[in-house]
Amino acid sequence: MPIVEVFEKQGMCVQVDSSKAREEVWALVKAQLVPHTEAGLVEKPLTEEAEMLLGLRPYPKRTKDDA
Q1: Half-sphere exposure (CA, 13 Å, Cβ side) for 27?
Q2: Which of 12, 51, 55, 62 is 20 to 30 A away from residue 37, measured at CA?
Q3: Residue 43 within any structural domain of the chain
């Protein structure tokens, strides 16, 4: 994992215990992102789509018109 080593040397890599509950892992990740995020985005650094992909938000229900 040479790329991880590069980022670690630059202080741009953190370790997070991903064996915890998804919401707890997200809280840990978000806490690490705060210093690197613009003030207006601190509370919500991910888009709704990203939250759905991570399983933090349910996908919208599909209807028969969504074809």
Answers
A1: 5
A2: 55
A3: yes
Task: Spell out the alpha helix ranges (H) of the chain.
Answer: 2-9, 22-33, 48-53
For residue 29, the model assigns a pLDDT of 83
pTM of the model: 0.47
CA-wise closest residue to 55 among 26, 32, 33:
26
13-24 per-position pLDDT tens digit:
888 888 999 889
What is d(CA 29, CA 32) in angstroms, rounded to the nearest whole number? 5
Contacts of 51 (CB under 8 A, 6+ apart): 57
Is the pLDDT at 10 greater than 50, yes or no?
Answer: yes
By residue range, what is the domain housing residue 27? 20-58
- Number of structural domains (the chain) is 1
